[in-house]
Amino acid sequence: MSYFANTPVIRYEGRGSDNPLAFKFYNPDEVVLGKTMREHLRFAVAYWHAFTGTGSDPFGGATNVRGWDRYSGMDLAKARVEACFELLHILDVDYFCFHDRDIAPEGDTLQETNANLDVIVGQIEEHMKATGKKLLWNTANMFTNPRFVHGAATTSNADVFAYAAAQVKKALEHGKRLGAENYVFWGGREGYESLLNTDLGLELDNLARFLHMAVDYAKEIGFDAQFLIEPKPKEPSKHQYDFDAATTLAFLHKYSLLPHFKLNIEANHATLAGHTFEHELRVSRINGVLGSIDANQGDLLLGWDTDEFPTDLYSTTLAMYEILLNEGGIGRGGVNFDAKVRRASFEPVDLVHAHIAGMDAFARGLQVAAKLIEDRVFDGILETRYGSFQSGIGADIVAGRASFRTLEAYALENKPIVNASGRLEHIKAIVNQYISNV
Amino acid sequence: MSYFANTPVIRYEGRGSDNPLAFKFYNPDEVVLGKTMREHLRFAVAYWHAFTGTGSDPFGGATNVRGWDRYSGMDLAKARVEACFELLHILDVDYFCFHDRDIAPEGDTLQETNANLDVIVGQIEEHMKATGKKLLWNTANMFTNPRFVHGAATTSNADVFAYAAAQVKKALEHGKRLGAENYVFWGGREGYESLLNTDLGLELDNLARFLHMAVDYAKEIGFDAQFLIEPKPKEPSKHQYDFDAATTLAFLHKYSLLPHFKLNIEANHATLAGHTFEHELRVSRINGVLGSIDANQGDLLLGWDTDEFPTDLYSTTLAMYEILLNEGGIGRGGVNFDAKVRRASFEPVDLVHAHIAGMDAFARGLQVAAKLIEDRVFDGILETRYGSFQSGIGADIVAGRASFRTLEAYALENKPIVNASGRLEHIKAIVNQYISNV
Amino acid sequence: MSYFANTPVIRYEGRGSDNPLAFKFYNPDEVVLGKTMREHLRFAVAYWHAFTGTGSDPFGGATNVRGWDRYSGMDLAKARVEACFELLHILDVDYFCFHDRDIAPEGDTLQETNANLDVIVGQIEEHMKATGKKLLWNTANMFTNPRFVHGAATTSNADVFAYAAAQVKKALEHGKRLGAENYVFWGGREGYESLLNTDLGLELDNLARFLHMAVDYAKEIGFDAQFLIEPKPKEPSKHQYDFDAATTLAFLHKYSLLPHFKLNIEANHATLAGHTFEHELRVSRINGVLGSIDANQGDLLLGWDTDEFPTDLYSTTLAMYEILLNEGGIGRGGVNFDAKVRRASFEPVDLVHAHIAGMDAFARGLQVAAKLIEDRVFDGILETRYGSFQSGIGADIVAGRASFRTLEAYALENKPIVNASGRLEHIKAIVNQYISNV
Amino acid sequence: MSYFANTPVIRYEGRGSDNPLAFKFYNPDEVVLGKTMREHLRFAVAYWHAFTGTGSDPFGGATNVRGWDRYSGMDLAKARVEACFELLHILDVDYFCFHDRDIAPEGDTLQETNANLDVIVGQIEEHMKATGKKLLWNTANMFTNPRFVHGAATTSNADVFAYAAAQVKKALEHGKRLGAENYVFWGGREGYESLLNTDLGLELDNLARFLHMAVDYAKEIGFDAQFLIEPKPKEPSKHQYDFDAATTLAFLHKYSLLPHFKLNIEANHATLAGHTFEHELRVSRINGVLGSIDANQGDLLLGWDTDEFPTDLYSTTLAMYEILLNEGGIGRGGVNFDAKVRRASFEPVDLVHAHIAGMDAFARGLQVAAKLIEDRVFDGILETRYGSFQSGIGADIVAGRASFRTLEAYALENKPIVNASGRLEHIKAIVNQYISNV
């Protein structure tokens, strides 16, 4: 049976097509800067939004109409797997991502929960073999169940810490079994509601202990996926410990975890933290930890995680620019649509429309970014702007040959300082030309 | 002499041009939906940012390098007039806007201040006659001078109220003399720092009294400009009384001022109030008070008025969409660049680059919006979506033929309700196609 | 049976008590400015948070442990009524508030839903008679059910408008039956997600039509409750039509609804709109529409409605100050705790702790505000500050005897203007003295 | 002569005093937890706000009326020194802080600028000897002068880097000469306006090079002050590199600067970054880098640095709680009023009122925090809440004796997990009791 009845496989028809069920910009085999779009973008469907999302929000119930709603329990879990591989086929997307609790229901005991998981992982494994689809990353949901009300690795209850460890252990085993390319840690309850009742030092120490155990266990079982931490500043907690890329780097430095982790950067989390998406990507890139991205967008006039499908071409262009300049591009990571259809877009075909919108937005961003690179637009700007550090006193500074004494001597003798305009308005006009013309 | 040496008059060269000093999208004579771009857009240069802006910010001094900096006092004022008409010529812009204190320095007394103003207004008048350039609007600066520390029309000091009245009286006279098409009220100090020492009721009553006096005086002297209020939610005050379009409408309703005023909507003020630019324009449009716009953009991750030159094509497209649908378009209003070059864009030519960037962004927005209208994209969506109000019970509701009793009877008999998807993701994908393809 | 086992009736023990289950500041019979605290505050328990709240959030499931969880359907509904009156008794609170869907489950048809409601309203009616507890206000929940996905009175589907009308009709009848003192309209889905697919003019016209029908029907059945609109700027919609007090006033003016409505001001909604709680109260007060308050507080570093129990003494002091100065005080309104225990405060006794915290915070705010009034602290400040409007030119302005001509004449002759300091820092220090000393 | 005519030395008169020019809570010699208030708080006056602040804002000119306004150039600089020591005397404050450019005007050359500085430093040195007043910290202003338009240590112009180095070299020498206890780095222009023209990697590398040079030079000259970095997230730059405490820690880790720096935490900078003041203090404390504080407060409904004098007793209580728990308390740091009187509080005596308000607020916070500690309120909460980590599996986790294998074994055997309520509402009620009762 089909969960997306009458929906054809989506093909590239070009930017002038008015077929809603076609790609206008994403042409998987189109070669850009030496690689195909498919290779650059490594799109992934997010299991949670696509197959367990209901359209509910804090003020209203489920709106989504889904073919699998008729089932419950393990039957529901199995139906969702079928739906997932059908959607991957329709969209011609190679990857998917899931939390453990997305794919299988909890049982009455951890044993039963794990048994449920094993069954579904087996079903997924078979589909993967049959279709060639791949697991971009898996992760453990340690935020939905009320046991995690005070956190998982940062809980105030040692029994919960143990439970969380058992859960991640199993998730690592499943990741290995399914050949996951990455494993993600998003600490949905790793944070605090108030400092008035929080032992911040202990909680952060425990988080580090937990991650070290995870590193050790992955090594022990030979699971070589890239470990990723996904920063988020707030929501559901008032303060989330992995606030942003820089905060996460501080944590990884302090606890000697830096060699083992990269970051999974989400656009909407960036803006909730007061940053642009490209800022978080740039910070990650220059620190060598740009691992993967959660593609979505927020509404900057709203203060919560709206997880909209990404359609802002400025944002996708600058994101792809950072990825193209990253050593190895997106590497083992990918572009995962951690995005949900709006609550009023409740039909199954809206899931297809939304992925088309997002994939086309990233494909278009890739085109524009690639052209900016080919034309050396930003390279040229930087070479001019920072030219003074290529020779003379500037080169001395960069090479470590300067001190306050030598610099003072230079400054006292130097002629009046002349700066050059930053030309930002003109640069933005160039970006508009590229977005309109490419 | 020239204040923009070596800067040619800017001409349209088309979207493929790589000449920084050319328009890529703004073609003044290009006809769009039956009017030229020039007629649709009615661009204006803002005197304050362009000729009195220094590049200073709360943490740093002037950076702008301007040819008129060598002068002071009335000589400076006169030089700025020359610079203004030179820039209007270079940009081929027809309109400009000013505050009284932008164009002439205050003297030791109000008499002297007014005399200074008269001199410069005379100089401007001559230039207008010689060039055909026009005054989109003028206004009175009642926020810079320390006498307005507690407000102007909403001051706690009756002497200041009187002074403000005298100042606006003069400004209305000058507006009439120069044939201003509009007169703007922006209440830079009409607001409060804290309710702890504020008589809110008295201050708002006084504001209404002031505006009624202005209406009366304009009528008395036969100044028929459109009066505009420009909403802003905060900054410099903690709370500004004309918070947003809706707040201003409530005020105008309460004090029977609605027949006399329209609104001047500024993009950055909209976002500071928690709204999109297009929201404020739509609210104004459906209330019949869309008068003019202050074209700029804010940074939604920053909490103050950044007054950047507008370059976001989404925003200019949706703004132009509202204007095109407004009865009479922008009417006697225009597109005034209430925008400043970034502090690091301090060369005179940056002023030219910035206006090119903004004018091209609005021209491109006009093109895209016009095509969306020609293709009936949004019209078609609305007709389908709200079709149920065209007949049956829906038509009864709209026509005033329904009551709770008749609607209950209908609802009790009605079959289960079926809603249709809002299709927002697909609609956004269409917008991206238009922005890329037009 | 008891749903709050071992919880005594909460009594006033005074500010030094360390009994967690006692009031420290709220002494119901203590007379303040001529009325008892009970009369001033008219506390109400909110049915939804207290009896249907689960502790779930967008990232996690129910945590609350409640005695009524063992039931379902109408049995659950009946158990909650028992729990409600038990909690009112424990807290010695006189009022409660509910949405229709809080108290009874929907059936398969509107007829069945209404029948369910009738049963529970009967049960509530009996308890009210037996205990003397009163209904502060009721309202209709038109946001949870997916039929309202596009709005209720502002839906794009006429069938939904009719359904909403039937629902409010029933709610008005129940309000009358239970002697509700007010009836509240909170438009949880009256707003938009995007202007791209919204007919803003039609939606607002329809909202006005709906409210006129409600006014007419209440009159028809002789339901004389005060009608209240509760503003909120966003969430769940991206934009809510009743954005804030001023926006709501503009709407009421435009559609001639002002004589029929007052406002129910919620602290957290105020701050989401960019205002202080006291600002929204002051705006309501000076426009004669301060009807009731939803007592809670938000976290200003978070961008969503956290609905915390109110504990900030600055906020409760300034809120009570506005209420004490309002003509008739809170009138037929009251202080309704539209607040939820934190997700980690999941025990039944936390509900009691939370209400104690909130009631004490408002009682303390009442004490401090009353003392500020008795000592004429703010009155004295305003009399001095605005003294210039009591005579001379200021009195002329206020009396309507001034014009731009007379004011200009005055200003031209006037001596240099001297302003007085606003003294805000000193005023804040006084407030701190009162909060510490009262 | 006197710059604060008729202003007496401020004495402690107790909480009931209605003398505006008296302390109500700050009793310098009162012993709290074994130290005097004076020793705990180490108050400092900020030279820039107090003596160079004008009351101007982006929309208006100077309002402040100051006795030294009659002077200019070096005469002005000298008068300000006199005013500073007069105010320190009046307030009985022991410390002050300055930027180099606060105390002396720039000359035409760096040589002349340095000569000006030397003169004023000499004058200050004499006053310090005569009065016993001390320099809490000094710093270099590298943000006001237009040469720093693109940054100082992170400029795109190597000549500017050299100039900045010379400037800090001089400031370190002056710090040593005056016995400064700390030296502060606040990077007012160390950030970016846009990534479109920024080489983020080079700029951050250069910032690290600069700080290493500063460390080396201080060591070379034997200046043993504590080096402090002051985080701020934005303003004046769109993004400031020292965004918050965690970001700064990541930077210090990466560039091996951590042993040489602590942090100077400012309340308003914390909230601009999306954090509470106490969060930034706690993060600093648990990382051993809590060095000093800039005492002020922001308006959380405004998006810029309002630098208000601190009066929120919740904030001062929680700040003092962190300081009291910090090893060594505030240590060599202090409580520096980086706060400005509101623009409408323009009289000299407002400076005195404002400092009284802030000092009393901190003294009151100290009293409340000390009592919370004496009564072990929070200690008791934490001991209970985290008790499970004191023994059994929890102790194994903390001691490093657990692994995913041992924890899984434990979890599989463990009985169902039971969590305890976090009791936050009750804890907040306790805080209110302490604030009202202490």
UniProtKB/TrEMBL annotation, chains A, B, C, D:
Note accompanying the cofactor annotation: Binds 2 magnesium ions per subunit.
Required cofactor(s): Mg(2+)
EC number of the protein: 5.3.1.5
Binding site for Mg(2+) 1: E230, E266, D294, D338
Catalytic activity: alpha-D-xylose = alpha-D-xylulofuranose
InterPro entries membership: Xyl_isomerase-like_sf, Xylose_isom_bac, Xylose_isomerase
Active site: H99, D102
UniProt-annotated binding residues for Mg(2+) 2: E266, H269, D305, D307
Keywords attached to this entry: Carbohydrate metabolism, Cytoplasm, Isomerase, Magnesium, Metal-binding, Xylose metabolism
Compartment list: Cytoplasm
Keyword Ribonucleoprotein on entry: no
Major subcellular location class: cytoplasm
Superkingdom as given in the UniProt entry: Bacteria
GO biological process, one term: D-xylose metabolic process
Any GO molecular function: magnesium ion binding
Similarity comment: Belongs to the xylose isomerase family.
Subunit structure as annotated in this protein's UniProt entry: Homotetramer.
Annotated protein name in UniProt: Xylose isomerase
Organism (species): Paenibacillus athensensis
